[in-house]
């Protein structure tokens, strides 16, 4: 079976996790801190809070920005449900911004129009969560300008975009947004099995996210509200969660990071191979904008929606385990019940109906890619 994605685990990863298992701390040791530092270095962020999933990272990012029941959060409907669920966890309401056909990222012209209307209606969002679909950054400069004009905060859902750059700055740098979130689920560009991280250039925000991810409990004397009674003393200052990353995950993440640039070179090579072999056959999400470098998390082809289903089935029937990224979030029964209507996002529906995510992972072989390419050609060119 050729999966759409899979982890790359070598002996050094296994050894790193075994070392963590043999160490004195399985949780709250030094590896999580080291992993946070390593992600800061890679993304050029100042601060990082490592947690147990990308979803938890989105949740604590929303909470740190003060999202609550009075607020609205806007995001892309062409994403994983966690991009919008995170706002609902905070009791906030959600709205969606339709995407561009070419990239599948939120359409900033649609956003600008919606903001102008919202300003008149006094219903501006507190936070906008752009999703860098497939690892290709959206136009952050334009988004930043809108955030300044309309006074909203930005959380980048960069779960696909570790290693991507926008205008020569790393995604996660904090130049254009308040917080960026990455996931280390097994299918992502590096993995900690389950895991995620929120990065920021704002110290206060980072402290708040750490507090929220560990029960709201602090042990650091400089932040105590009441008198420090002794060495046992700690304070719960808000209602937090246990979202902490464990040492085994951090150990895996650290060894994965050693190989990250190699992973990315291999992903780029695999994507170039698909583009080269499929250019006469079908289109794909993304464009050649030279100001961005994609992290190449996904390679999503676009095929006539009347042929999509049969191509998808042919690939699956031949053990090529393709996927769909994504169904329109507004079309999910849970969201329909909240009153959303998928028809309000025509570009999202169009991209979704035409999409198939082809197998892409750092150690995919040319032989595997050739099998996928041959099946696509056979189905679309016969
Ligand atoms: C994977 C993913 C998430 C959630 O990450 P988990 O670590 O699985 O919780 C959120 N948003 C997007 C776009 C993702 O791809």
Secondary structure elements and pairings:
Blueprint: E1 2-3, H1 11-22, H2 30-43, E2 47-51, H3 54-64, E3 72-75, H4 82-89, E4 93-96, H5 108-120, E5 127-129, H6 140-150, E6 153-157, E7 165-166, E8 169-170, E9 179-183, E10 196-200, H7 203-212, E11 217-218, E12 235-236, H8 247-258, H9 260-278, E13 283-284, E14 292-293, E15 299-302, H10 305-317, E16 320-321, H11 333-337, H12 346-354, E17 355-358, H13 366-380
Parallel strand pairs: 1-16, 3-4, 3-5, 5-6, 6-9
Antiparallel strand pairs: 2-10, 7-8, 7-14, 9-10, 11-12, 13-15, 15-17
Helix pairs in contact: 1-8, 2-8, 3-4, 3-7, 5-6, 9-13, 10-13
The protein binds pyridoxal-5'-phosphate (PLP).
Descriptors:
382 residues, 13 helices, 40% helix, binds pyridoxal-5'-phosphate
pLDDT < 50 stretches: none
Query: What is the CA-atom radius of gyration, in angstroms?
Result: 21 Å
Average pLDDT figure: 97
Identify the strand order in the major beta sheet.
2-10-9-6-5-3-4
Distance between the termini: 24 Å
What general form does the structure show?
globular
The portion of residues forming beta strands comes to: 5-15%
Q: How many helices does DSSP assign?
A: 13
> Based on DSSP secondary structure assignment, what is the total number of beta strands?
17
Bound molecules: pyridoxal-5'-phosphate
Task: Give a short account of the largest sheet.
Answer: 7 strands, mixed
Structural class: alpha/beta
